[in-house]
Design brief:
The chain is 68% helix and 0% strand. By secondary structure, the protein is mainly α.
Length: 200
């Protein structure tokens, strides 16, 4: 039970950090624009890492916080807090870089890209083959399949967010996040940090 509680700490602290930075950005003039991601601009490149930490308003912040807690805790419980931290950083960098390179010319803020990245990671992990010269135990594979099915059942409607149905919504950020999550899942499966940290 103590280990279970320990694995919840990292995702909870991550969401708390988002709340703290967002509230500070509301209070400091110009902070929101400074932390936003603006594709293909020098001043917007810092947003690759900072964009998930700021939100436009309370509704935006709360709407992202719930799935962040749910999916983040699921990743940390399944793979350990070190995997969670490494995967979150990788998801942030990969999805942010994709959005900065290919996204629409607009100011992008919010952690919905991370939500979609974690969603993509959890959804695809059960379909990834074992790395060369390695095997995945049946029990581990069954757990991953159950997680993928459960995530799809609860959050499957999120897939509509990958389509350009509303220009006010950063659908390209969602798509970049989803692809970034799949890439992170693959890296975790085929790298030492993923295999070792999943045991923590």
């Amino acid at each position: 039970m103590a280990e279970f509680r320990t694995r919840l700490v990292a995702p909870i602290l991550y969401v708390a950090l988002i709340w703290a930075v967002t509230i500070a950005a509301w209070l400091i003039p110009g902070a929101m624009a400074m932390l936003a991601l603006v594709p293909r601009t020098e001043y917007g490149i810092t947003g690759i890492l900072s964009m998930p930490l700021v939100h436009l308003g309370p509704q935006h912040l709360i709407a992202n916080s719930v799935p962040l807690l749910m999916l983040g805790c699921l990743i940390s419980i399944r793979h350990g807090h070190r995997y969670f931290l490494t995967a979150t950083f990788t998801c942030t960098g990969a999805s942010g870089l994709l959005l900065w390179t290919f996204g629409r010319s607009a100011m992008h803020i919010g952690a919905s890209g991370i939500v979609f990245a974690w969603f993509g990671l959890l959804l695809i992990q059960s379909f990834l083959p074992a790395p060369r010269n390695a095997t995945i135990r049946l029990r581990e594979r069954v757990i991953d399949v159950c997680i993928s099915v459960g995530v799809m059942f609860v959050y499957g409607s999120m897939l509509w967010g990958l389509l350009p149905t509303d220009q006010r919504i950063s659908w390209d950020g969602h798509l970049a996040g989803f692809v970034g999550g799949i890439l992170t899942a693959w890296l975790g499966r085929h790298s030492s940090w993923g295999r070792k940290q999943s045991q923590n």
